[in-house]
Amino acid sequence: MPIPVVRAEAYYLPPPSRRGDAWANVPPAERVWRWYELKMQRRMQRPDGFIIGQRTWARINHNRWIADCPCGSAQIVTPTDQRMACPECGLGWVIVVFPADVAAVEASVAEDLPHERNWWNPDDPDAWDRIAAPKPPGGE
């Protein structure tokens, strides 16, 4: 059985002391806040609204769908709930841009070992860690 690319709903899970479906009614993008509260042992204030005009690009990093925050943090995201808010800096909800065909992108990395599965959205202008395409000989 192939190893799937990890999404928020499969990563941010309730603690073992709770039933596995304890967070079933919590939207996947909001589970990071519950998970973070458990790991950091402090109450977090979730943002109320969206930041208009702000967006971030989903990418696959070591077999996880992630999105980067402008503060330098990142979190695991999912195409089933295309938003994120940063528990590190408090950035409000932003839209996460996924590729039009998520299944095709996941299939394109499926043959790689999970730790080597990486994909960057070609439309992301700020992909700071993207492997640079080779320049053609004699020009840019």
How does this structure look, described?
- This protein is of the alpha+beta class and 140 residues long.
- Helices cover 18% and strands 21% of the residues.
- It contains 3 helices and 6 strands.
- The protein has helices at 8-11, 28-40, 102-109; strands at 50-61, 64-68, 74-76, 83-84, 93-97, 118-119.
- Strands 1, 2, 3, 4, 5 and 6 form a 6-stranded mixed beta sheet that branches.
- It starts with 7 loop residues before the first helix and ends in a 21-residue tail after the last strand.
SSE layout:
Layout: H1 8-11, H2 28-40, E1 50-61, E2 64-68, E3 74-76, E4 83-84, E5 93-97, H3 102-109, E6 118-119
Parallel strand pairs: 1-5
Antiparallel strand pairs: 1-2, 1-6, 2-3, 4-5
The ordered string of helix (H) and strand (E) elements is: HHEEEEEHE
Molecular shape: globular
- Please report the number of helical segments: 3
Approximately how much helix is present in the residues? 10-25%
What is the makeup of the main sheet?
6 strands, mixed
The separation of the N and C termini measures: 43 Å
Proportion of beta-strand residues: 15-25%
Low-confidence blocks of residues: none
Beta-strand segment tally:
6
Overall pLDDT = 89
